[in-house]
Structure formats: structure tokens, C-alpha cells
Amino acid sequence: MLRLFKTHDIRKQIELTGLWDFTPSSGENAGHTISAAVPGCWECIPGFENYRGMAEYSKSFTGGGNIRIVFKGVSHTAEIFFDEKRVAGHYNAYTPFDAIVTSVPDGEHTIRVKVSNEHNEASSLHVSNDYYTYGGINRPVAVEFLQDVYITHVHATPLCINNEWSLQLAIGIRNIGKNNKTVTAAVSLNNTRHTFEPETINAGEEMIITGEVRCPGVESYDSYNPVLYNLHTCISIDKNNTGDGSLCCPTQGTVPCVVFCDDLIERIGFRVVEVSGREVLWNGKPILIKGFNRHEDHPDYGNALPFQAMVNDIKLMKDMGANAVRTSHYPNDELFLDLCDEFGLMVWEENHSRGLSEEQMRNPNFRSQIAECNREMVYNHFNHPSIFIWGIMNECENSTEYGRECYAEQFKQIRSLDSSRPVSFASFKFLSDICLDLVDIVSYNIYPRWYNETPVAEYLQELMDWVEKAGGRGKPFLITEIGAGGIYGYRNPGRRAKWTEERHADILEEQLNAIFNNTNVSGVFIWQYCDIRVDEDWAMRRPRSMNNKGIVDEYRRKKLAYETVKEIFAKNK
């Protein structure tokens, strides 16, 4: 399952979910081919629980013409071969990419994917970390059959003026054929139909068609009323420019003298996110954020969680009263984002970088790799109404001039890709951050009562007083991480022992009450929703080789803190 809704009526698409041939490149099973699930992580295959290295996946399908192979995620480097010819390469486990092969003869064809989850000098983002980098084709794969002219993307930005909604549209169209084509784009949503003026697109080029479309009669989208609409875009070409047979567009019908050659359906919601003074506004109303940090991690599935497990995670978070989730520390599976859209769960989506020092940020590949991650994150997830903040570089070096240069560069890039959402980053530099003037929302990760014994309210106020002098004056303030460790089933009636469920719950109670009692704090993301596996280098600092700060454990069993969070979230509206 790629998405929760149908994305094409005209374009033919087949999913390659299922069993693929899997061949490890090293270890005692090197060269031996077995069947493996896609999507899936190879750590979930018996005998490969700790495999770090390279492997190869292959799968055959039947078809021909112009082929687009879509990968939603491969962890964490990939080389793509089509009938033994290399057609693409990609770095980063958490963002989609594609490969296009033109004029393919009809018949059976083989996709081969070389995958690595190794840490090496060429990898600046995937480093040993406080979470585990799994290996494999961990998100869905599809094959699409394209005409010479096709839609690359549709980005829809909702606008509300005098209580009337409209969409600012940017429609990407690419010509992979050998001849120039005259193209007409048309969109439909609800009772709205709009046709753009014809445009000529040269062979081998891509163009962007822009325009604003009024959308009367639509309902606003928010957490309590997550109304979604299908935005259907079709493109047609003049019959004089093609010998193709006529196609009927479901939203436009059969139109004389044109051929409908492609379409794309995106799902959107009408909402505007703004920052005004110390408040984050959703459709003009201030919001109080009550959220969780969530890693894609499960002992049975690695980071390739199936649909049912994603639904269960959201239901548990919402049962505790959450209205938001932070995708720590990478872009999430689009199925999960679709579910957040449906359930009205606001999303802070974050690029992939956690805890990097200046030395690591000076890796020659860092700036190009993080820039590509940012581009793919925003480009592919632009239309999700649940996403309300773009976040970057969690707990990286932001107290040096070089670090500031990197933060400024990325914020400039993201704002150029999407100016409709605020930007932020989660800082941990207590009293030394020099990047707070760059953000729309100031965000901090703090752990009073866990890593130090300072009373929470005192610690929080000292930090906020300093932020006012350090570039964050008058901006919204968020706590993006706070929490404590608690191991499921470890109890102590004295309530003072670290790692007990009682101590975990007591610390969270003081932390959350201090946050919600401070009227200048716009909300919190608790660290974290569930316990997760960490890299081996972190195991000595993490009992059970797990980050144990989850409100539920890795199997989603509720700790005592579950009811504590639920009670406090419920009384803070």
C-alpha cells in the first residue's frame, strides 16, 4: 500500500509489494539467495538480526513503454539496475526517489537493487546514533507506465482571504519524449473546475504551471474536523501532436481534439498555519501542542511498520490526548502521514540529522546530502495538511559560526521550497545557542529531574529568560523533548529509583505540569512515544540496548506514565 487513497485514474501503476529475492554480500550467507518481504528490514529475517553491510534485492515484472520505478524508502544507500543497466543511485533511508527508463520493449524485466546500511566516511547523516539504522527496502515500491508527457508533482498552498478559500497551485510537467508538445492542464476539486492556458513544453524539459484557483464551499481542516479533499489534475495534449489513442479523463470527460495523457490525485486540507507573536495560529486560532516524539521502530518489523501498527500507534497517542507528533529524527513513511491527515494529528516533520558535531557537519558530503534530504522531504510531503512545522538538525552544533552557517543555509532552502509553514529546530545548547534569530519558533530539548536535579519550573524559566536575550524574544516557545527513563515492569514502591516506572511517571508529572503552567510555552512533544533500539555504540549508555524513555515499551505495553500523561493532557485544553 503506497497511499490511503487512489492517486491515478489514467496513469497505470502496479505495486511491487511482496516477496523479492534477497542476497547478502558478506557473512556466512554471502551469495545465498532467499526470499524477503518488501517493504521490510533484513534485521527481521532470522540470522540477520545484527547484519550491517550490503545486500541485493531483485524482482521481475511484465510491461513496456516508459517506465517509472518509485521507491518510497531504501535504507540507506541504493543503486538501482534495470535489466542490468544502472539507472539511479540514492542516499538516505527516509525520503522517496525514482528512476525512469524510456522506450522499454514489452516483456519481462528485472529490477535489481543494491542496498547498504553501512556507516562509512561517505555517509554524513547515517552515523552511529541513539536509534538504529536498519537495512533493506523498508518502504513500498511501485512501477508506473508513463506517456511521453507526465505530471511530476502538484503542490497546493491553501489561501484564505475574507473567509474565502483558494489554492495557489504549482503543477510540474515533464516531457521525456523526442518531440515538443502543447499541453493543457486542468484541475478539479469538489465543485470547482479550472483549465489553464495551453503551454508548449520542449522535448527533454520540465516546466511549472502556476495559478490561483478559488474553491467556494469547502470546509476548513483542523484537528477536530479533519476534512480532506481530492485534488485531481489532468493534462492533455493536442491530437495533432500525437498518434496515441484518445483517453477519457474521469473529471473532464472526453473532449474533442485532445488526448488526456496523464493525471495525479493529491489529497489536501484547507488550513493556514501562521506565527503571531508568541502564538502558533491554526486558521487564525492559537493552538496548544500536546504531542509525542515517535521513531519508526518495532521489534517485529524494524522501521518498516505495517499499516495496522501505524494505526495502533496513532490510536494510542490520541487515547492519551495527543494532538501532535514529531517525526524524530527523519521524514516518515507517507502512509503514516496520510493517517495523521485522516486523524487530525498535527505533524512536526523533521529532516534526517541528529546530534551531529561540527566535525561531523564538516564531512565533505554533509551539505549536499542534507540539502537533498530537505528537498525530497518538502517536495514529496508538501500537500499533507497535518504537517505544520518543518524541522531541521535536531541537537546538532548550533553554538559555533560554522554551525550557524549550516542552519541558515538550510532554513533559506526550506523557505524557498515552502513559505507557507514555519520552520524550527530542536536545540539542546543551554545558554549557548547562537541560531535562535533564524527560526520562526524557538524549540528546546530539556531533561530536568532526569539528567540533573534542578526543579523543572526553575530550569524552564531560566532557559526562557535567556532565550529572550539570545534572539528568541517574542517568538513562540516549544519544548520539543522532555521526559525520563522507565523500564516496563521494573517497579519500586519507594518511587525514587531511576529506571522504575514509578520514578518515570513522577518526573513526567512534574515536567508536564511546569510546562502547562507557563503561559508563554506553546506546547510540548514528550520524549518519547515508545522504547526503541539503539546502535551498538550507544548500548553501554542504554539499558537493554534500548532508549527506554517511551510512555509505552517497544511492544506498545503501557507503562505507569501512560495514565499520568493522559490525565495531564486531558486537563490542559
Topology readout:
Blueprint: E1 12-15, E2 18-24, E3 34-38, E4 54-71, E5 77-82, E6 85-91, E7 97-116, E8 141-146, E9 149-161, E10 164-175, E11 181-189, E12 192-195, E13 199-201, E14 206-214, E15 229-238, E16 258-268, E17 273-276, E18 279-282, E19 285-286, E20 289-293, H1 307-319, E21 324-326, H2 334-343, E22 346-350, H3 358-361, H4 366-381, E23 387-392, H5 401-417, E24 423-427, E25 442-445, H6 456-469, E26 477-481, H7 501-516, E27 523-526, E28 532-533, E29 546-547, H8 561-571
Parallel strand pairs: 20-21, 20-27, 21-22, 22-23, 23-24, 24-25, 25-26
Antiparallel strand pairs: 1-8, 2-3, 2-4, 4-7, 4-8, 5-6, 5-7, 9-10, 10-14, 11-12, 11-13, 11-15, 15-16, 17-18, 18-19, 28-29
